Amino acid sequence: MSHTSGTNRRTTLKAIAGAGALAALPAALHAQTAPGRFIEYSNVAALGLPDQRLTIWLPPDYDAGTGRFRVLYMHDAQNLFDPALSNFNKVWAADRAMLNHADAHGEDPWIIIGIWSPGEDRYRQYMPRSAYDAAGPVLRAKMDQFGNGKPIVSREYIDWIAGTLRPWVNRSFRTLTARDDTAIVGSSMGGLISLYAFLEYPAIFGRAGCVSTHWPAIAPQSVDATDPEVLDIWQNLLTTQLGETDGRRLWFDHGTATLDAFYPPYQRAIDTLMQGSGWERGSEWESRVYPGAEHEENAWAARLPEIYDWVLG
């Protein structure tokens, strides 16, 4: 297995698509990951966004064959694979879960395109712009505080994924490009942005996983247990944009401890809306509760095999 890195200069996806030899990262940075090949690109220019960073995992059979692979986009890539790169010295182990999923079902693994969160700009990149625009002045002021007064750029982010990153991935790697071969998954605010991409680009993302979705949108202590305005925003967003299933699949889940303890009232209301949407629970959408699970990477890693089985199955 190799783990390679792009140069530190600011570059574009067009530029890195034609990059030559890439310098290897120290072996310690990939000692705890699964078989396969990692490629990393840093300082990637994206219009209207902070510079982006990518960690791409290619399955073990990718280099040995000529077949094409389905593609999973995941947020917070620094916490997906390698504890040495993570914020909290714990990870989802997304590569190991993917190999186990593929072995259990006798199918090829998906390529994983991990997109790092941009540090202090994470909130403004992951907070759905349509929800922000629907907020009243008091709630919006709290959102602005969370984003340090900077503009919300989540629309630019999902446009970049769908319109720039994905086409580059499909040109640069052997991928299957159909809607049902393309999934997007994230946790917390990453759950919100995954839902946003799923709703805004129904012809591109056929599957989405919204893990421990941060429905309160800001610090939950600063709004009521189930803030009517916040809940109304999400319900309106789903009501107006969910549409017909057309074979798509949408996953929700949450734990019951730490930050996840704030989510059940919101998720129950969302589940009620989904029940009346015409989508069939169990095959087209799902919502699961993990009693005692906390809002952290070890909890998400523990249930990632179940998430993969349903979302990617």
Short description:
The chain is α/β, with parallel strands linked by helices and 313 residues long.
How would you describe this structure to a colleague?
The chain is of the alpha/beta class and 313 residues long. The chain has one domain: Alpha/Beta hydrolase fold, catalytic domain (Rossmann fold), CATH 3.40.50.1820. It is 35% helix and 17% strand. The protein has 10 helices and 10 strands. It has a 10-stranded mixed sheet, with helices on both faces. Helix 2 packs parallel to helix 10 and helix 6 crosses helix 7. The longest helix is centred in the middle third of the chain and has 19 residues. The N terminus is likely disordered.
Rg over alpha carbons:
19 Å
Structural class: alpha/beta
Question: What is the total tally of β strands?
Answer: 10
Placed side by side, the strands forming the largest sheet appear as 2-1-3-4-6-5-7-8-9-10
What order do the helices and strands follow?
EHEEEEHEHHHHEHEHEHEH
Q: Given the C-alpha coordinates, what overall shape results? A: globular
Query: What proportion of the residues is helical, as a percent range?
Result: 25-40%
Quote the beta fraction.
15-25%
Number of helices: 10
Biggest sheet, open or closed, and with what strands and sense? 10 strands, mixed
* CATH top level assignment: Alpha Beta
Number of domains: 1
* Uncertain stretches of 5 or more adjacent residues: 1-8, 17-29
Task: Please report the distance between the alpha carbons of the first and last residues.
Answer: 27 Å
Q: Regarding quaternary structure, how should these chains be classified?
A: single chain
Look at the structure and name the CATH superfamily: Alpha/Beta hydrolase fold, catalytic domain
Look at the structure and give the mean pLDDT: 90
CATH architecture: 3-Layer(aba) Sandwich
Q: What is the CATH topology classification name?
A: Rossmann fold
